[in-house]
Amino acid sequence: MNHFPEAWGRPRDDVYGPYNSSYLQTTGPKGHTQSPAVTGTTVLGVKFNGGVVLAADSLASYGSLARFTDVKRLRKFGDTAVVGFSGDISDMQYIDRLLDSIDVRENYSANGNTLNARNIHTYLSKVLYKRRSEFNPLWNHILVAGFDDDKKPFLSSADLLGTTFSAPHLATGFGAHLAIPILRRLFPEEKPLEDISKDEAVAALRECVKVLWYRDARSLDQYSIAVISAQGIEFQEDQQVEAQSWAFAETIKGYGAQVN
Amino acid sequence: MFRNNYDNDAVTFSPQGRIFQVEYAQEAVKQGSVVVGLVNKTHTVLVGLKRNAEELSSYQKKIIEIDSHMGIAIAGLASDARVLSNFMKQQSLGSRLTYGRPLPVDRIVSQIGDRAQTNTQHYGKRPYGVGLLVAGVDDAGPHLFEFQPSGMTQEMLACAIGARSQMARTYLERNLEKIAGSTRDELIIHGLQALKETLSQDKELTVDNTSVGVVGLAAEGKIESFKLYEGQLLVPLLDALERSEAGEETKEAETMEVDS
Amino acid sequence: MTSIGTGYDLSNSVFSPDGRNFQVEYAVKAVENGGTAVGIRCKDGVVLAVEKIISSKLLKPGANKRIATVDRHIGIVSAGLIPDGRHFVSRARDEASSWRNVYKGPIPVSALSNRLGSYVQAYTLYSSVRPFGVSAIIGGWDSEAELAVDGQVGNGPNAGSGGKVEGAKAGGPGLYMIEPSGLYWGYYGAATGKGRQAAKAELEKLDLSAGNLSLLDGVKEAARIIYVAHEDSKDKDFELEMTWISTLDGPTHGRHEAVPRELLEEAERAAKAALEGDDEEDDATKGDAVDSERMQE
Question: What residue ranges define each of the domains in chain B, with the CATH number in brackets?
Answer without folding.
Answer: 20-255 (3.60.20.10)
